[in-house]
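sorry to bug you again but im stuck and you know this stuff better than me. theres a chain ive been looking at and ive put its sequence and its fold in C-alpha cell form underneath. id like you to explain what the C-alpha cell line says about the fold, in plain words if possible. anything you notice is useful, everything is just below.
___
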Amino acid sequence: MKRLLTLLFTVLFSFSVIASDYKYSIGVVGGLGLGTQFKVMMTPNFTIIEELGYFTCPNGGTSAYGGLIDNAVFAYQGKAAEGKGIELSWFAGGQVKFGYDALVGGGGVFGFGGAGGIEANMKNAPIAFSFDFRPGYAFNFTNAWGGGWAIAHMFDWSINLGVRYTFPSPKGAQKKK
C-alpha cells in the first residue's frame, strides 16, 4: 500500500506545472442550479472552489432535494494545453456539500462526492471558464409527510459551467510565463 501511494504521488507531482497565472477568481456557476463561485489557488496545483446558491438533485426517483446549498470542492489542478490566447487546465478532486432543502418539506442536506473537469483561462482577458462533472452521495434530513423526521439518501450528480473574473497573482507568488 505504501508503494502504491508513493508511486501515485510521484506520478502526480512529476506532471506538476504551474496551472494558472491567477491566485483568486470570483464569478457565477450554473448547471442544475445557479450560484456564486469563489476559487483560490492555494498552491500552484491545489485549488479550493467555494460555491453558494440554489442547487437541485436530479435523482429521478421519489428522493430529491433542492435549496440553498454550499459546495466546497478541493482539487488538484494541472496544465493540459496552451495556445496563443488560451490555457487549458484539468482538475480532479472531491467535494462536500451541505445546506437547506426547500423542495421536500424543509430540512437539511449533507453530501460528498468527486469532482473533475476542465478550465479555460484567457491569457488576454481576466476571464476563466470551467466545465465539470460531480457525482456524489447525499443525505436529506427532511420532515416526513406524516409527521416526524426522515432521512433519505441518494446518488446525485451535477454538470456545471462556471464563468469567473480572475485576479492576477501577487508578484513572485507563481512563476510567470
